[in-house]
Amino acid sequence: MQARFPRLLGSFSKRPLLPVALALILLVASLLLGIRNDRIRLDERLRASHVQAEILARSVAAPLAFDDRPAMREYFDALKANGNVLAAGAYGLDGALEAGLARPGIDLPKRLPTEVRNAGGPEIVWQVPVSQNGTRLGTVYLLYSTESWSRRLSRYAGIALLVATAALLIAAIGTAYASLSRSHQRLRDEIAQREKAEEALRQAQKMEAMGQLTGGVAHDFNNLLMVASSGLDLLDRTDDPARRERLKAGIRQAIDRGAKLTQQLLTFARRSPLKPEVIDVEQAIRGLQDLLERSLREDITVRMEFAEGLCPIEVDPSQFEVALLNVALNARDAMPEGGVIRIVADSLPAADGDPARVRIAIIDQGVGVDPADLEKVFEPFYTTKEVGRGTGLGLSQVYGFARAAGGEVRFESERGRGSTVSLLLPCSTKPFAGRVAAMAAVTRAPERQRLLLVEDDEQVATMVEQMLAELGYDCIRVADGTAALARLARDSAFDLVFSDMVMPGATSGLELAHEIGRRWPRLSVLLTSGYSDAAASAMAEGREILQKPYSLQTLGAKLKEILAE
Question: What is the pLDDT of residue 452?
Fold first, then answer.
């Protein structure tokens, strides 16, 4: 019933005249039901009055036989308790009245009527013979009231009033619901139109944000390419060893910043696989000293302050460095007149359900941020810099890194008083084992070994071939995975296959590694990639991945490690 009522009201909204028709049907049905009940009530009164007349005939038989009028009057007096009995009398064989009862205003016939008809009116007349032992003694006359017309009409009127009220209520509810439904439909149409407009606005904002992102990335990469290209030109025009070293250091710095920018974009796109390690906070931050000095201006000084007894944290070291570098670069841009950037690390004990944490605060003396913009600083693409001067991803990457590491980031600022960005990272329960220092020397092959290089990019392949030759390896290069399998089918006498992850053709780097493991299980495979979905799958399988870009030292160390295994 509860499920039908909403469906019924729903049909009202489609056909507004339906509630009125339903109300009329209900009214007619109720009247018909009242007439039927009235007929049933009349039949019951007929039966009851006839039974009363028969009982009275049996009761007065003996008094009538002995002409005992006082006894008969006692029987008739007893009928006064029955309000439906209007008149009653006992008549002899000659039709004369012997004894009887009549209500005020009712005339009891002096002689027995010769004809009686019950036409269903308000009164019923019965004439029942009085007999004893088969001998007829006379007749009993009974005038019985069914119900007055006024009373019957008042009952019908009451029923009709209730039914009409219910019908009007249904009609009113149906009409109101129909109107409400139409209003609701108009509202839904308006909401749908507004959602379309909002979707169009969001799409326009996305395109504007992508334009801002493209401009910022292009600006940053153009600066890096400018440093690299001008550095190479100057290298060809100088023989001063000290100057050549400075130029090479500048080129390496540009390459490092380009790699950091790419890592930042991948982190924002959630395409950068995390490789958490337990690190020492003070050691990791002090290791950024040289990078910060190269990245910041000469009029900016970096001061580092560390509390004693800092616990180790478990984070991706490269992501940690990128996050700190992003905040430092934002602080640099916020201080056009120069100043001091403080990096402060201290401990926060466990409290209020939070574990023990390390707080790393980067404090600048810049222009600060307006209070209205504080809630936007971590939004992707949001930047206060000029168009083309930034990607708007720096603090977004910091926020994503902090959440991925199980911590949080807080931003506090006051216009004209500088800003403070605080990273709150949980302490690691694992001990710090120390990090292996990067190898300064190139690890060369202990003996001449054959490598199969699988790389589709001609320029990258040329540089990698020269790097492998410098490391002392014999290298044969093919362009894709299908060509690599064909070459191995002819000659599998290689010590290692060094393959890119993403290549044209039907066979990817990971699929190539699977096929080599199946057909040549003793042949080592080293995969490399800038990033791809397949790289994440390969790392999930426990395979070695050499991230691009990589240095000669990193390549030599990784090849030695794989071949030693």
Answer: 93
